[in-house]
Amino acid sequence: NVAHGLAWSYYYGYLRIVLPEIKERIIASKFFENCNERIHMCKKFILLFPESCRCFPTLHDQDSDISVEGHLEPVIRNRAGTVNRYYRSTVYSVKDNIDPNKKYFFIGEYITAILTMFEMEQSNLAGLSTHDKLLQSAQFYIKIEDILKCHVECNNTYKIIYFKDQSERGKIPKISDIILTTIKAEI
Amino acid sequence: NVAHGLAWSYYYGYLRIVLPEIKERIIASKFFENCNERIHMCKKFILLFPESCRCFPTLHDQDSDISVEGHLEPVIRNRAGTVNRYYRSTVYSVKDNIDPNKKYFFIGEYITAILTMFEMEQSNLAGLSTHDKLLQSAQFYIKIEDILKCHVECNNTYKIIYFKDQSERGKIPKISDIILTTIKAEI
Ligand SMILES: Nc1nc(=O)c2ncn([C@@H]3O[C@@H]4COP(=O)(O)O[C@H]5[C@@H](O)[C@H](n6cnc7c(N)ncnc76)O[C@@H]5COP(=O)(O)O[C@@H]3[C@@H]4O)c2[nH]1
Protein backbone atom coordinates (compact mmCIF):
# COMPACT_ATOMS: atom_id res chain seq x y z
CA ASN A 1 0.00 0.00 0.00
CA VAL A 2 2.32 2.64 -1.38
CA ALA A 3 -0.04 5.60 -0.91
CA HIS A 4 -0.34 5.22 2.87
CA GLY A 5 3.39 5.53 3.57
CA LEU A 6 3.91 8.29 1.00
CA ALA A 7 1.07 10.37 2.47
CA TRP A 8 2.50 10.15 6.00
CA SER A 9 6.01 10.84 4.68
CA TYR A 10 4.73 13.90 2.82
CA TYR A 11 3.00 15.15 5.98
CA TYR A 12 5.77 14.49 8.53
CA GLY A 13 8.66 15.31 6.21
CA TYR A 14 7.24 18.38 4.54
CA LEU A 15 3.75 19.80 5.09
CA ARG A 16 4.16 19.87 8.87
CA ILE A 17 7.38 21.85 8.31
CA VAL A 18 6.29 24.36 5.64
CA LEU A 19 2.52 24.87 6.02
CA PRO A 20 2.08 26.29 9.54
CA GLU A 21 4.13 29.45 8.87
CA ILE A 22 3.29 29.92 5.19
CA LYS A 23 1.02 32.97 5.66
CA GLU A 24 3.68 34.79 7.69
CA ARG A 25 6.38 33.96 5.12
CA ILE A 26 4.16 35.23 2.30
CA ILE A 27 3.31 38.48 4.09
CA ALA A 28 7.00 39.04 4.93
CA SER A 29 8.07 38.63 1.29
CA LYS A 30 9.02 41.38 -1.15
CA PHE A 31 6.36 39.99 -3.54
CA PHE A 32 3.62 40.77 -1.04
CA GLU A 33 5.06 44.26 -0.50
CA ASN A 34 4.52 44.93 -4.20
CA CYS A 35 0.82 44.08 -4.14
CA ASN A 36 -1.74 46.68 -5.21
CA GLU A 37 -5.03 46.80 -7.16
CA ARG A 38 -3.39 45.13 -10.15
CA ILE A 39 -1.09 42.70 -8.37
CA HIS A 40 -2.48 40.17 -5.91
CA MET A 41 -0.81 37.43 -3.96
CA CYS A 42 -2.54 34.26 -2.89
CA LYS A 43 -1.94 33.55 0.82
CA LYS A 44 -2.35 29.78 0.57
CA PHE A 45 0.07 27.16 -0.67
CA ILE A 46 -1.20 25.82 -4.02
CA LEU A 47 -0.52 22.07 -4.30
CA LEU A 48 -1.14 20.56 -7.73
CA PHE A 49 -2.24 16.94 -7.96
CA PRO A 50 -2.34 15.66 -11.55
CA GLU A 51 -4.37 12.44 -11.76
CA SER A 52 -1.56 10.69 -13.67
CA CYS A 53 0.96 11.73 -10.96
CA ARG A 54 3.10 13.21 -13.73
CA CYS A 55 4.86 16.24 -12.26
CA PHE A 56 6.89 18.53 -14.52
CA PRO A 57 10.18 20.00 -13.21
CA THR A 58 8.54 23.45 -13.02
CA LEU A 59 4.96 24.67 -13.48
CA HIS A 60 6.19 26.77 -16.42
CA ASP A 61 7.19 23.51 -18.14
CA GLN A 62 3.56 22.37 -18.06
CA ASP A 63 2.04 25.76 -18.93
CA SER A 64 4.14 28.61 -20.31
CA ASP A 65 1.52 31.13 -19.12
CA ILE A 66 2.83 30.50 -15.61
CA SER A 67 6.02 32.46 -14.92
CA VAL A 68 8.74 31.76 -12.37
CA GLU A 69 9.18 34.80 -10.13
CA GLY A 70 11.53 33.67 -7.36
CA HIS A 71 11.35 32.13 -3.90
CA LEU A 72 10.17 32.87 -0.40
CA GLU A 73 12.81 32.91 2.34
CA PRO A 74 13.55 29.24 2.94
CA VAL A 75 12.60 27.25 6.02
CA ILE A 76 15.82 25.84 7.49
CA ARG A 77 15.86 22.82 9.80
CA ASN A 78 18.23 20.16 11.11
CA ARG A 79 16.60 16.90 10.09
CA ALA A 80 17.77 13.28 10.19
CA GLY A 81 21.45 14.22 10.10
CA THR A 82 21.26 16.96 7.47
CA VAL A 83 22.38 20.16 9.19
CA ASN A 84 20.48 23.25 8.00
CA ARG A 85 18.39 21.49 5.39
CA TYR A 86 16.70 24.02 3.06
CA TYR A 87 12.97 23.90 2.31
CA ARG A 88 12.34 26.34 -0.56
CA SER A 89 8.96 27.52 -1.78
CA THR A 90 8.77 28.79 -5.36
CA VAL A 91 6.82 31.96 -6.19
CA TYR A 92 5.05 31.89 -9.55
CA SER A 93 2.83 34.41 -11.30
CA VAL A 94 -0.03 34.14 -13.77
CA LYS A 95 -1.86 36.92 -15.67
CA ASP A 96 -5.58 37.24 -15.30
CA ASN A 97 -7.38 35.53 -18.18
CA ILE A 98 -9.95 38.36 -18.29
CA ASP A 99 -7.94 41.50 -17.49
CA PRO A 100 -4.33 41.09 -18.79
CA ASN A 101 -3.23 44.06 -16.68
CA LYS A 102 -3.96 42.07 -13.55
CA LYS A 103 -1.41 39.60 -12.20
CA TYR A 104 -1.52 37.02 -9.46
CA PHE A 105 1.46 35.78 -7.47
CA PHE A 106 1.20 32.41 -5.76
CA ILE A 107 3.30 29.80 -3.96
CA GLY A 108 2.86 26.61 -5.92
CA GLU A 109 4.25 23.22 -6.72
CA TYR A 110 3.13 19.68 -7.49
CA ILE A 111 2.64 17.21 -4.65
CA THR A 112 6.19 15.89 -4.82
CA ALA A 113 5.36 12.58 -3.13
CA ILE A 114 3.12 11.41 -6.00
CA LEU A 115 5.95 11.77 -8.50
CA THR A 116 7.38 8.60 -6.91
CA MET A 117 4.27 6.69 -8.02
CA PHE A 118 4.67 7.99 -11.57
CA GLU A 119 8.32 6.94 -11.60
CA MET A 120 7.48 3.53 -10.14
CA GLU A 121 4.93 2.98 -12.91
CA GLN A 122 7.50 4.00 -15.53
CA SER A 123 10.13 1.66 -14.15
CA ASN A 124 9.96 -2.06 -14.85
CA LEU A 125 11.39 -2.94 -11.46
CA ALA A 126 8.91 -1.36 -9.10
CA GLY A 127 5.95 -3.49 -10.12
CA LEU A 128 3.31 -0.74 -10.10
CA SER A 129 0.85 -1.09 -12.97
CA THR A 130 -0.99 1.93 -14.39
CA HIS A 131 -4.18 0.58 -12.86
CA ASP A 132 -2.57 0.24 -9.42
CA LYS A 133 -1.03 3.67 -9.73
CA LEU A 134 -4.42 5.28 -10.34
CA LEU A 135 -5.87 3.41 -7.35
CA GLN A 136 -2.95 4.48 -5.15
CA SER A 137 -3.18 8.05 -6.45
CA ALA A 138 -6.83 8.23 -5.33
CA GLN A 139 -5.88 6.61 -1.99
CA PHE A 140 -3.13 9.20 -1.49
CA TYR A 141 -5.57 12.05 -2.11
CA ILE A 142 -8.04 10.72 0.45
CA LYS A 143 -5.26 9.99 2.95
CA ILE A 144 -3.47 13.33 2.76
CA GLU A 145 -6.70 15.30 3.20
CA ASP A 146 -7.54 13.05 6.20
CA ILE A 147 -4.14 13.65 7.76
CA LEU A 148 -4.27 17.42 7.21
CA LYS A 149 -7.77 17.70 8.71
CA CYS A 150 -6.42 16.16 11.93
CA HIS A 151 -3.69 18.75 12.29
CA VAL A 152 -5.08 22.18 13.10
CA GLU A 153 -1.81 24.01 12.56
CA CYS A 154 -2.24 23.27 8.83
CA ASN A 155 -5.86 24.49 8.59
CA ASN A 156 -6.53 27.08 5.85
CA THR A 157 -2.90 27.15 4.72
CA TYR A 158 -3.22 25.18 1.47
CA LYS A 159 -5.39 24.30 -1.51
CA ILE A 160 -4.96 20.91 -3.16
CA ILE A 161 -5.97 21.09 -6.81
CA TYR A 162 -6.71 17.60 -8.16
CA PHE A 163 -7.07 17.65 -11.94
CA LYS A 164 -7.48 15.16 -14.75
CA ASP A 165 -4.37 15.70 -16.83
CA GLN A 166 -5.02 12.66 -18.98
CA SER A 167 -7.82 13.47 -21.29
CA GLU A 168 -9.45 10.68 -23.28
CA ARG A 169 -10.41 13.16 -25.99
CA GLY A 170 -6.93 14.66 -26.32
CA LYS A 171 -7.79 17.94 -24.57
CA ILE A 172 -5.52 18.49 -21.58
CA PRO A 173 -6.67 21.14 -19.11
CA LYS A 174 -4.67 24.38 -18.93
CA ILE A 175 -3.32 24.51 -15.39
CA SER A 176 -3.00 28.31 -15.45
CA ASP A 177 -6.79 28.51 -15.84
CA ILE A 178 -7.38 26.00 -13.06
CA ILE A 179 -5.00 27.88 -10.75
CA LEU A 180 -6.58 31.25 -11.62
CA THR A 181 -10.03 29.94 -10.72
CA THR A 182 -8.73 28.73 -7.37
CA ILE A 183 -6.80 31.92 -6.57
CA LYS A 184 -9.73 34.19 -7.43
CA ALA A 185 -12.01 32.13 -5.22
CA GLU A 186 -9.52 32.60 -2.39
CA ILE A 187 -9.09 36.36 -2.86
CA ASN B 1 3.11 -1.97 3.03
CA VAL B 2 4.74 1.28 4.04
CA ALA B 3 8.34 0.16 3.48
CA HIS B 4 7.90 -0.59 -0.22
CA GLY B 5 6.73 2.90 -1.18
CA LEU B 6 9.20 4.64 1.13
CA ALA B 7 12.13 2.69 -0.34
CA TRP B 8 11.19 3.60 -3.93
CA SER B 9 10.55 7.21 -2.88
CA TYR B 10 13.96 7.37 -1.19
CA TYR B 11 15.60 6.00 -4.34
CA TYR B 12 13.79 8.08 -6.98
CA GLY B 13 13.52 11.27 -4.93
CA TYR B 14 16.96 11.30 -3.36
CA LEU B 15 19.60 8.60 -3.82
CA ARG B 16 19.33 8.69 -7.61
CA ILE B 17 19.92 12.46 -7.38
CA VAL B 18 22.79 12.63 -4.88
CA LEU B 19 24.71 9.32 -5.10
CA PRO B 20 26.01 9.16 -8.70
CA GLU B 21 28.17 12.31 -8.40
CA ILE B 22 29.12 12.01 -4.72
CA LYS B 23 32.78 11.05 -5.33
CA GLU B 24 33.32 14.02 -7.64
CA ARG B 25 31.66 16.41 -5.17
CA ILE B 26 33.84 15.08 -2.33
CA ILE B 27 37.06 15.38 -4.34
CA ALA B 28 36.11 18.91 -5.44
CA SER B 29 35.50 20.05 -1.84
CA LYS B 30 37.81 22.19 0.32
CA PHE B 31 37.70 19.40 2.95
CA PHE B 32 39.33 16.97 0.54
CA GLU B 33 41.97 19.57 -0.36
CA ASN B 34 43.00 19.65 3.29
CA CYS B 35 43.62 15.91 3.52
CA ASN B 36 47.06 14.62 4.52
CA GLU B 37 48.56 11.79 6.64
CA ARG B 38 46.55 12.91 9.66
CA ILE B 39 43.32 13.96 7.95
CA HIS B 40 41.41 11.52 5.79
CA MET B 41 38.13 11.87 3.98
CA CYS B 42 35.80 8.97 3.27
CA LYS B 43 34.72 8.93 -0.40
CA LYS B 44 31.42 7.15 0.19
CA PHE B 45 28.14 8.50 1.50
CA ILE B 46 27.55 7.09 5.01
CA LEU B 47 23.86 6.32 5.56
CA LEU B 48 22.90 5.47 9.12
CA PHE B 49 20.01 3.08 9.71
CA PRO B 50 19.05 2.80 13.39
CA GLU B 51 16.88 -0.27 13.99
CA SER B 52 14.28 1.81 15.87
CA CYS B 53 14.16 4.30 12.94
CA ARG B 54 14.83 7.06 15.45
CA CYS B 55 16.87 9.73 13.63
CA PHE B 56 18.32 12.65 15.59
CA PRO B 57 18.34 16.13 13.99
CA THR B 58 22.14 15.91 13.62
CA LEU B 59 24.66 13.11 14.17
CA HIS B 60 26.29 15.29 16.86
CA ASP B 61 22.99 15.12 18.78
CA GLN B 62 23.32 11.33 18.99
CA ASP B 63 27.08 11.28 19.67
CA SER B 64 28.98 14.41 20.70
CA ASP B 65 32.25 12.87 19.46
CA ILE B 66 30.97 13.55 15.94
CA SER B 67 31.52 17.18 14.91
CA VAL B 68 29.68 19.21 12.29
CA GLU B 69 32.22 20.58 9.77
CA GLY B 70 30.10 22.08 6.99
CA HIS B 71 28.55 21.05 3.69
CA LEU B 72 29.49 19.94 0.20
CA GLU B 73 28.34 22.17 -2.67
CA PRO B 74 24.62 21.38 -2.99
CA VAL B 75 23.00 19.50 -5.83
CA ILE B 76 20.41 21.84 -7.34
CA ARG B 77 17.47 20.53 -9.41
CA ASN B 78 14.08 21.62 -10.66
CA ARG B 79 11.75 19.00 -9.29
CA ALA B 80 7.96 18.70 -9.17
CA GLY B 81 7.43 22.45 -9.35
CA THR B 82 10.15 23.52 -6.93
CA VAL B 83 12.58 25.62 -8.95
CA ASN B 84 16.20 25.10 -7.89
CA ARG B 85 15.50 22.71 -5.05
CA TYR B 86 18.60 22.31 -2.85
CA TYR B 87 19.96 18.87 -1.89
CA ARG B 88 22.62 19.46 0.79
CA SER B 89 25.10 16.91 2.10
CA THR B 90 26.55 17.51 5.55
CA VAL B 91 30.26 16.99 6.22
CA TYR B 92 31.08 15.62 9.68
CA SER B 93 34.35 14.68 11.34
CA VAL B 94 35.33 12.15 13.96
CA LYS B 95 38.68 11.68 15.71
CA ASP B 96 40.41 8.33 15.54
CA ASN B 97 39.69 6.26 18.66
CA ILE B 98 43.30 4.98 18.68
CA ASP B 99 45.38 7.97 17.51
CA PRO B 100 43.67 11.23 18.63
CA ASN B 101 45.86 13.20 16.23
CA LYS B 102 44.13 11.53 13.32
CA LYS B 103 40.81 12.81 12.05
CA TYR B 104 38.32 11.50 9.52
CA PHE B 105 35.91 13.62 7.48
CA PHE B 106 32.82 11.97 6.06
CA ILE B 107 29.52 12.74 4.37
CA GLY B 108 26.84 11.30 6.61
CA GLU B 109 23.21 11.34 7.61
CA TYR B 110 20.41 9.05 8.73
CA ILE B 111 18.17 7.43 6.12
CA THR B 112 15.54 10.19 6.08
CA ALA B 113 12.77 7.93 4.82
CA ILE B 114 12.76 5.73 7.92
CA LEU B 115 12.14 8.70 10.19
CA THR B 116 8.61 8.71 8.77
CA MET B 117 8.09 5.20 10.20
CA PHE B 118 9.33 6.35 13.61
CA GLU B 119 6.97 9.34 13.51
CA MET B 120 4.06 7.15 12.38
CA GLU B 121 4.68 4.83 15.33
CA GLN B 122 4.78 7.81 17.72
CA SER B 123 1.55 9.25 16.37
CA ASN B 124 -1.77 7.73 17.39
CA LEU B 125 -3.30 8.45 14.01
CA ALA B 126 -1.00 6.55 11.66
CA GLY B 127 -1.82 3.10 13.04
CA LEU B 128 1.72 1.70 12.94
CA SER B 129 2.48 -0.46 15.97
CA THR B 130 6.03 -0.90 17.25
CA HIS B 131 5.93 -4.50 16.04
CA ASP B 132 4.84 -3.44 12.54
CA LYS B 133 7.43 -0.69 12.48
CA LEU B 134 10.24 -3.16 13.17
CA LEU B 135 8.92 -5.46 10.43
CA GLN B 136 8.66 -2.57 7.98
CA SER B 137 12.10 -1.31 8.99
CA ALA B 138 13.62 -4.70 8.08
CA GLN B 139 11.59 -4.74 4.83
CA PHE B 140 12.90 -1.27 3.95
CA TYR B 141 16.48 -2.38 4.49
CA ILE B 142 16.07 -5.37 2.18
CA LYS B 143 14.19 -3.32 -0.42
CA ILE B 144 16.59 -0.35 -0.60
CA GLU B 145 19.62 -2.62 -1.01
CA ASP B 146 17.73 -4.49 -3.77
CA ILE B 147 16.88 -1.28 -5.57
CA LEU B 148 20.42 0.10 -5.32
CA LYS B 149 21.96 -3.14 -6.64
CA CYS B 150 19.86 -2.75 -9.80
CA HIS B 151 21.15 0.74 -10.51
CA VAL B 152 24.80 0.70 -11.50
CA GLU B 153 25.24 4.46 -11.29
CA CYS B 154 24.93 4.10 -7.50
CA ASN B 155 27.47 1.25 -7.18
CA ASN B 156 30.25 1.84 -4.63
CA THR B 157 28.98 5.30 -3.70
CA TYR B 158 27.47 4.53 -0.28
CA LYS B 159 27.65 2.45 2.87
CA ILE B 160 24.45 1.68 4.77
CA ILE B 161 25.18 1.13 8.44
CA TYR B 162 22.34 -0.78 10.11
CA PHE B 163 22.73 -0.77 13.90
CA LYS B 164 20.74 -1.87 16.92
CA ASP B 165 20.15 1.40 18.75
CA GLN B 166 17.71 -0.16 21.19
CA SER B 167 19.66 -2.24 23.59
CA GLU B 168 17.84 -4.63 25.92
CA ARG B 169 20.63 -4.34 28.44
CA GLY B 170 20.70 -0.56 28.44
CA LYS B 171 23.94 -0.23 26.51
CA ILE B 172 23.43 1.79 23.35
CA PRO B 173 26.18 1.54 20.73
CA LYS B 174 28.37 4.59 20.17
CA ILE B 175 27.80 5.59 16.56
CA SER B 176 31.19 7.33 16.29
CA ASP B 177 32.86 3.94 16.88
CA ILE B 178 30.62 2.22 14.34
CA ILE B 179 31.30 4.92 11.76
CA LEU B 180 35.08 4.82 12.43
CA THR B 181 35.14 1.08 11.84
CA THR B 182 33.33 1.54 8.52
CA ILE B 183 35.50 4.46 7.37
CA LYS B 184 38.76 2.69 8.21
CA ALA B 185 37.62 -0.39 6.30
CA GLU B 186 36.95 1.87 3.29
CA ILE B 187 40.28 3.73 3.43
N1 LIG C 1 18.52 13.86 3.66
C1 LIG C 1 17.70 14.27 2.67
N2 LIG C 1 17.95 15.46 2.10
C2 LIG C 1 17.16 15.94 1.10
O1 LIG C 1 17.41 17.04 0.59
C3 LIG C 1 16.04 15.13 0.67
N3 LIG C 1 15.08 15.30 -0.27
C4 LIG C 1 14.32 14.20 -0.22
N4 LIG C 1 14.76 13.34 0.72
C5 LIG C 1 14.17 12.06 1.05
O2 LIG C 1 14.06 11.29 -0.14
C6 LIG C 1 12.76 10.68 -0.24
C7 LIG C 1 12.03 11.15 -1.45
O3 LIG C 1 11.89 12.52 -1.46
P1 LIG C 1 10.66 13.24 -2.15
O4 LIG C 1 11.11 14.60 -2.52
O5 LIG C 1 10.10 12.44 -3.27
O6 LIG C 1 9.53 13.23 -0.97
C8 LIG C 1 9.50 14.27 -0.09
C9 LIG C 1 8.72 15.38 -0.73
O7 LIG C 1 7.50 14.90 -1.28
C10 LIG C 1 8.45 16.26 0.43
N5 LIG C 1 9.56 17.17 0.60
C11 LIG C 1 10.55 17.08 1.48
N6 LIG C 1 11.40 18.11 1.35
C12 LIG C 1 10.92 18.86 0.33
C13 LIG C 1 11.34 20.08 -0.29
N7 LIG C 1 12.44 20.75 0.09
N8 LIG C 1 10.60 20.57 -1.32
C14 LIG C 1 9.50 19.91 -1.72
N9 LIG C 1 9.04 18.76 -1.18
C15 LIG C 1 9.75 18.25 -0.16
O8 LIG C 1 8.33 15.41 1.56
C16 LIG C 1 8.66 14.06 1.17
C17 LIG C 1 9.37 13.36 2.31
O9 LIG C 1 10.60 13.99 2.54
P2 LIG C 1 11.70 13.42 3.59
O10 LIG C 1 11.04 12.71 4.71
O11 LIG C 1 12.57 14.55 3.96
O12 LIG C 1 12.59 12.35 2.87
C18 LIG C 1 12.72 12.27 1.50
C19 LIG C 1 12.03 11.01 1.04
O13 LIG C 1 12.25 9.94 1.94
C20 LIG C 1 15.84 13.88 1.29
N10 LIG C 1 16.65 13.46 2.30
TrEMBL record, chains A, B:
It comes from the Eukaryota. This is TIR domain-containing protein. The lineage of its organism: Eukaryota, Metazoa, Spiralia, Lophotrochozoa, Mollusca.
